[in-house]
UniProtKB/TrEMBL annotation:
<dbReference type="Pfam" id="PF03466">
    <property type="entry name" value="LysR_substrate"/>
</dbReference>
<dbReference type="GO" id="GO:0006351">
    <property type="term" value="P:DNA-templated transcription"/>
</dbReference>
<keyword id="KW-0804">Transcription</keyword>
<dbReference type="GO" id="GO:0043565">
    <property type="term" value="F:sequence-specific DNA binding"/>
</dbReference>
<dbReference type="InterPro" id="IPR036388">
    <property type="entry name" value="WH-like_DNA-bd_sf"/>
</dbReference>
<protein>
    <submittedName>
        <fullName>LysR family transcriptional regulator</fullName>
    </submittedName>
</protein>
<dbReference type="InterPro" id="IPR000847">
    <property type="entry name" value="LysR_HTH_N"/>
</dbReference>
<keyword id="KW-0238">DNA-binding</keyword>
<dbReference type="InterPro" id="IPR036390">
    <property type="entry name" value="WH_DNA-bd_sf"/>
</dbReference>
<comment type="similarity">
    <text>Belongs to the LysR transcriptional regulatory family.</text>
</comment>
<dbReference type="Pfam" id="PF00126">
    <property type="entry name" value="HTH_1"/>
</dbReference>
<dbReference type="InterPro" id="IPR058163">
    <property type="entry name" value="LysR-type_TF_proteobact-type"/>
</dbReference>
<dbReference type="GO" id="GO:0003700">
    <property type="term" value="F:DNA-binding transcription factor activity"/>
</dbReference>
<feature type="domain" description="HTH lysR-type">
    <location>
        <begin position="1"/>
        <end position="59"/>
    </location>
</feature>
<dbReference type="InterPro" id="IPR005119">
    <property type="entry name" value="LysR_subst-bd"/>
</dbReference>
<keyword id="KW-0805">Transcription regulation</keyword>
Length: 308
């Protein structure tokens, strides 16, 4: 039995929650995954996983063994990288998750810069607005907008995104153009709610250095960034979004910015990854590249007259 390979299989089963998913992820026959785990348990003399027809769960011994495996495998990868070409040309699969708008408008268009520099890294990118469980879903790194809420993850700040308040020309013709937040009586907003937590978000304005929350009536609520903007373009009310997400609509006249003197607070964009992947060369070079990307001129992170 290849114990290191068995440990890799074991950790992937834990992360993905099943033998079949682990086998597919590692491109191994499912029978081989089952045999390796049985051999590993026999070698250790303990049961690591409890199997039922519906789910896989860790035993007490498995829960104690898992973090040790993760640390050992991470240390091994880093040690090998120090003494191999992978130190300068890392290779392997890197799983990344990010908001659909950031991926579609910012990261993927610039991705040829990264793949040209690191041609042996294979990227698997998921684009969605829900919050993924990095450990459970086997994701190496995520990009998230807003303040990081999970202290168990390593956070690397990337950029503070300018946000703007927008509405469609048709909506403003019907409801009038507000000159200040006090003019919002009689207006309505498109409401955004989290698909993961169900939390609902109204409007926020920075007034005299203080953030003030404003909730307006709404006719439409959505749980995706693209749907949020589509509802705004359809005339259902005011929205607040990162500038990069509305730059094209503003330039084409499909949306109009309002309340420029009372902007929304900036939104931090952060790269996060589990502590046990902190030493992964693949994660490190990708996050470093994201920092470079966010610092490049010409990105639509800042409103053109913001002075940022």
């Amino acid at each position: 039995m290849d114990r290191l390979n068995a440990m890799r299989v074991f950790t992937r089963i834990v992360e993905l929650g099943g033998f079949a998913k682990a086998a597919d992820s590692l491109q191994m026959p499912r029978a081989s995954v089952t045999i390796l785990i049985k051999q590993l348990e026999a070698h250790l003399g303990v049961q690591l996983l409890q199997r039922t027809t519906r789910q896989i769960s860790l035993t007490l011994d498995g829960a104690a063994y898992y973090p040790r495996c993760v640390r050992l495998l991470a240390d091994l990868e880093e040690t090998e990288a120090v003494f191999s070409a992978a130190r300068h040309n890392p290779k392997g699969l890197l799983r990344v998750d990010m908001p659909a708008g950031i991926g579609r408008l910012i990261v993927i268009p610039a991705l040829p810069q990264f793949t040209a520099r690191y041609p042996l890294i294979e990227l698997e990118i998921s684009l969605n607005d829900r919050t993924v469980d990095l450990i459970r879903e086997g994701v190496d790194c995520v990009l998230r907008g807003g303040s990081p809420l999970d202290d168990s993850l390593v956070a690397r700040p990337l950029v503070m995104l300018d946000q703007v308040t927008c509405a469609s020309p048709d909506y403003l013709q019907r409801h009038g153009v507000p000159e200040c937040p006090a003019d919002l009586q009689g207006h309505q907003m498109v409401e955004y709610f989290s698909a993961t937590t169900g939390s609902r978000f109204g409007l926020e304005f920075v007034i005299d250095g203080q953030v003030q929350a404003v909730n307006l009536p709404r006719q439409v609520s959505v749980n995706s960034a693209d749907g949020y903007m589509a509802a705004c373009e359809a005339g259902y009310g005011l929205v607040q979004a990162p500038y990069y997400h509305v730059a094209r609509q503003l330039s084409e006249g499909r949306l109009c910015e309002v309340l420029r003197d009372a902007p929304p607070p900036g939104m931090p964009l952060t790269a996060l990854y589990p502590p046990h992947r902190q030493l992964s060369r693949r994660v490190r070079v990708f996050v470093d590249w994201l920092v470079e990307l966010c610092a490049q001129p010409g990105q639509h992170f800042y409103r053109s007259d913001s002075g940022s």
